[in-house]
Amino acid sequence: MRKFLILVLLAFNYSVCFGAHEELSKQATAFYSDNNHIRTMDLILQINEKERSPQDWLLLGNVFADNGKTEDAVYMYRKAIEKDKKCYRAYYNLGNYYLERGEYQNAIDNYSKASKIKTDNPYIFYNLGCAYLKLNNLSQARANFNKALMYNSNIAELHYNLAYVYKSMGKDKMAQTYLDNYNKIIYGM
Asked: Which of 53, 126, 33 is nearest to 118 (CA)?
């Protein structure tokens, strides 16, 4: 009977800790959505590193990125990926980091990984197209902009970039079509 009671208490303690971790994560997410970075960080840091979820690591990375601490953010995104290889948001955020730094091939590698996990996110394909555009790989830029367009045709910059790609390819008529689309979205013309 005594062993049974100890096992029950251990199980209860485990479920309380597990529930506490989940509750801290939920609260941290809520505080992050309210731009309360200090409280977000405080809550996640209360969770043991081994028990942090990929979402916890991702939130930490976002807090660091939002506060200009990009190297720390990169570390946190990598921890999220280490915890879950299918954490597409971490790959996406790493892609953004590399794109901003002008490391276009690294950006492409990370956006490509994200796009294989989350196949219907227009922003992944849009940013992937932007990275290819920076490398002057017009055909890959166009292909990825068109994939993004399949999932959301109301992104004005997407139409503008497609107009630029087609203009660069000497396809003025197609360029004008996308420029017209851009103007319709922006100005309602």
From this structure: 126
